[in-house]
């Protein structure tokens, strides 16, 4: 099968289609009190796990959950030393402390069956009553706003994996500017500001990048959309790194980048900028089924989610793609 997330067709045909409803009742009674999120990352860099931790913390914040406990399961290659494991845990604990969360469980084991270390992160938190229900539905006519930078997570992960190579390609100041963007990975303040501004939908950008996120917005809400690609915030550092490796930043994972919808997109942008976040109004949700992306005078229909560009980067061995 193709790398990356399963397509919706494969999921419905070969996963959902094989599951059977044995009993027509829930295991637990309905509750809004607790919610769980999970994420997985892999890579040689010692700090790779912090991206999984940032993702689960942001997902819980979207649903108004806290305080948060994080549990980790880590698969290590035999080449990883104890000091390397210690460094990995330190990076993830730092992210948790910054967010006011706590690591409560760590299970780690060494496996000869994997090529790179793998980190599974699971976070649990209680729904805060004052936050109300999780904003999960866009309505036709609402504005679509993007908070954060397109492809930022993927850029930072590539930097972590290829510091020496990128150091030969770019000047030190450029790499320092990239490293400073790590603070953008945690989006709790922006998420809280969006909630106060009355958002009806929030979704963190995952595999497949912002294009996949827009598709998921439309699927989840049963709406169409019209957005302008040129309005999407993207850092020059991301553009430079993606050009070097032949990657599409709009199809690259980006924890900390949140899609939102609201009646007044301009007011939402101001609210997000008020807490120091970068935000832009991309377009509107529509009653039609069409999912249209404009770029200047050119318009095209949004394709089904493609494999994440970071996965393609790994597939090509982390090397520049032939032009």
UniProtKB/TrEMBL annotation:
GO terms for biological process: protein maturation. Transmembrane segments: none annotated. It holds the Pfam family AIRS_C. InterPro entries: HypE, PurM-like_C_dom, PurM-like_C_sf, PurM-like_N, PurM-like_N_sf. Signal peptide: none annotated. Belongs to the HypE family. This is Hydrogenase maturation factor. Residues 39-108 form the PurM-like N-terminal domain. SUPFAM superfamilies: PurM C-terminal domain-like, PurM N-terminal domain-like. Residues 140-289 form the PurM-like C-terminal domain.
């Amino acid at each position: 099968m193709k790398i990356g997330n399963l397509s919706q067709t494969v999921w419905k045909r070969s996963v959902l289609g094989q599951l059977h409803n044995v009993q027509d009742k829930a295991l637990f009674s309905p509750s809004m009190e607790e919610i769980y999120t999970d994420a997985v990352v892999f890579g040689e860099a010692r700090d790779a796990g912090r991206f999984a931790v940032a993702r689960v913390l942001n997902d819980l914040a979207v649903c108004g959950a806290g305080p948060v406990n994080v549990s980790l399961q880590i698969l290590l290659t035999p080449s990883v030393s104890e000091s390397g494991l210690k460094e990995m845990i330190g990076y993830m604990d730092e992210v948790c402390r910054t967010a006011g969360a706590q690591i409560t469980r760590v299970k780690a084991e060494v496996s000869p069956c994997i090529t790179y270390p793998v980190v599974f992160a699971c976070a649990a938190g209680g729904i805060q009553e004052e936050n109300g229900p999780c904003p999960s539905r866009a309505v036709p006519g609402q504005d679509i706003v993007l908070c954060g930078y397109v492809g930022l997570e993927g850029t930072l992960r590539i930097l972590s994996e290829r510091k020496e190579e990128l150091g030969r390609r770019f000047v030190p100041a450029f790499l320092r500017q990239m490293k400073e963007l790590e603070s953008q990975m945690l989006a709790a303040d922006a998420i809280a500001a969006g909630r106060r501004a009355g958002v009806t939908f929030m979704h963190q950008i995952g595999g497949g990048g912002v294009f996949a996120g827009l598709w998921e917005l439309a699927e989840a809400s049963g709406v169409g959309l019209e957005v302008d690609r040129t309005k999407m915030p993207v850092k020059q550092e991301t553009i430079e790194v993606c050009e070097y490796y032949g990657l599409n930043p709009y199809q690259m994972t980006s924890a900390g980048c949140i899609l939102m919808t609201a009646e007044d997109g301009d007011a939402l942008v101001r609210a997000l900028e008020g807490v120091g976040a970068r935000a832009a109004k991309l377009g509107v949700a529509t009653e039609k089924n069409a999912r249209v992306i404009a770029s200047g005078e050119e318009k095209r229909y949004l394709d089904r989610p493609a494999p994440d560009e970071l996965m393609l980067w790994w597939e090509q061995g982390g090397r520049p793609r032939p032009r």
